Amino acid sequence: MIALSELVQGSEINLAAIGEELGKTLAAIVDYRGDVTLNLKDGSQLAGFVYNCSPKTIELYPQTSPAPISLSLDQVESILISGSDTAKGKSWEDWQRKKSSEREAIKAAPIAS
Amino acid sequence: MGVPISQMWTVASYVLKHKIRATERYPLVLMLEPLFRCNLACAGCGKIQYPEHVLKRVLSADQCLAAADECGAPIVSIPGGEPLLHPEIQQIVEGLVARKKYIYLCTNAILLKSKLHLFKPTKYLTFSVHMDGLKHEHDEAVCRDGVYDRATEGIKAALEKGFRVTTNTTLFDGANPERTREFFDEMMKLGVEGMMVSPGYSYSKAPDQESFLKREKTYQLFRKIFHAGKRSWRFNQSPLFIEYLSGSRHFECTPWGNPTFNIFGWQKPCYLLQEGYAKSFKDLIDNTDWKSYGRKSGNAACQDCMVHCGHEPTAVDHTFGSLGGFWATVRATLRGPRIQAPAADTDFISTESVVGQADFVPEKKVANG
Ligand code: SF4
Ligand code: SF4
Predict the structure, then answer these.
(1) Is residue B366 one of the residues assigned to a domain?
(2) Cα(first)–Cα(last) distance of chain A, in Å?
(3) Cβ–Cβ of B51/A89 closer than 8 Å?
(4) Count of beta carbons in the 10 Å neighbourhood of residue B332
(5) Pocket test residue of B36, B39, B47 for ligand 1, highest count of atoms within 8 A of CB
(6) What whole-number distance in Å separates Cα of residue A24 and Cα of residue B195?
(7) ipTM over 0.90
(8) With a 6 A CB cut-off, is B41 part of the ligand 1 pocket?
(9) Is residue B181 included in any domain, yes or no?
(10) Domain residues for B162?
């Protein structure tokens, strides 16, 4: 099984190799806040945001089309984590660090005479 | 001006209708998310972190109105994202007003003043302005300086034009009770109809995992805020929910009370967790494993959750579900919620474990709020 925290941009998940943990792995992919690329068994690819899955299907918003698509999992060979995680690096701590460095910069700036 | 009698009557008769029919699960507030895009990026917000092409997608006005019809809840809350960025927000609001739905349009109010011309004042429409505290605290929470002033300007402009305006406040770990009380005074001075408060929730996707309130801390914080509350404060929420936040009574979560609909469908099981999407409201109600959610279920995601969208519907249901609940609400409305005096930080002991839903442990002091 792959946990959400292990899904890093560039990693690829081969569905046939996962076995019984498929459901949990797909749940982690649904939780991932970035795009993925589905490599289909017919050799084509489909990039988009996966928002739902069931034991048999996977639903996504493709990057280039307005309507969502539902695919049978049987059609999917592997899933590449192709997009960046949009939830990463936007922390409260980052904001607080930014604010405190701004305050320090203001304090350190020479006072115009 | 308080909540209109017609709104109270609508909610009361709706709940009673379901009580008489013995409906096991009914919705009270539809959480309609027509888009995720926002003009702010608050730390701790789990709603806006999506790829750009997802943030550009919106529910059409027709989809929004169909969801309201399908769900049937008397109240529709429109959070987001920022709903005022939606290209059809006027049509959505007009359609809901035509259906006599009481709308809470949740906004950070950055655009409120400039978009007011799109709307007509009516008892059915309330702007629920996101305000997380006084200027310093709010600007810090929304990660941008100057937003408090813009929001205040928006509130004043909306009130001047005769709109209903409330505030909604999420309190995170480290909130200062004294400053929060000052904030309540300030909002009352501004002239808002009422205020809503809720503790933050530890979204698994929210980056600020550590800063969300844990249950015990929540009780302590809300006791400090609400004990000896002022008569001038008005809240646009159930007084029993305020007692719950302060640990005076316990409510289990009823997530079906505030079902969520967005571009992905009907969100399972609640506004916060995303454990799949149903194609229809009926599918959501019939095919969600509701027993797996709420504190009693043991689900780790629910253990520290006390947010309003899961627990306020329980409070409202309790009001109309028993004479005891009804009288407790009447008493709390007339005399203010009963809030225990806050314990010293070092010896704080929660009474929650011995307080049942309809019970109340008499406290040392009673708030006069
Ligand atoms: S204003 Fe609301 S939706 Fe927008 S980023 Fe802040 S919390 Fe999220
Ligand atoms: S307690 Fe209720 S509202 Fe909170 S996370 Fe669980 S299901 Fe959702």
Answers:
(1) no
(2) 64
(3) no
(4) 22
(5) B47
(6) 40
(7) no
(8) yes
(9) yes
(10) 5-360
Tell me, what DSSP letter sits at residue B340?
P
Task: Give the model confidence (pLDDT) of B142-151 as tens digits.
Answer: 989 999 999 9
Q: Do B51 and A83 touch (CB under 8 A)?
A: yes
Distance B304 CA to ligand 2 centre (A): 9
Which pLDDT score, from 0 to 100, does residue A112 have? 59
- A27 neighbourhood in chain B, CB within 8 Å: 275
**B38 Cα to the center of ligand 1, angstroms:** 6
Residue B84 lies in a domain: yes
Sequence-distant (≥ 6) Cβ neighbours of residue B48 within 8 angstroms: B36, B37, B38, B41, B55, B81
Count the domains in chain B. 1
Confidence (pLDDT) at B348: 41
Q: Return the residue in B37, B53, B203, B213 with the most chain A beta carbons within 10 A, the one to mutate for interface testing.
A: B53
Q: What is the rounded average pLDDT of the residues B176-189?
A: 97
Nearest Cα to B222, choosing from B272, B296, B258, B172?
Answer: B172
Q: Is B204 on the interface with A (CB under 8 A)?
A: yes
pLDDT-derived band at B362, boundaries 50, 70, 90: very low
User: What fold, for A4-108?
Assistant: SH3 type barrels. (2.30.30)
Give A54-109 pLDDT, tens digit per residue: 889 999 999 999 999 999 999 999 999 999 999 887 655 566 667 677 767 877 87
User: CATH no. for residue B11?
Assistant: 3.20.20.70
- The tokens of B18 are what? 């379901």
Delimit the domains of chain A by residue range.
4-108
Tell me, yes or no, whether B365 lies in a domain: no
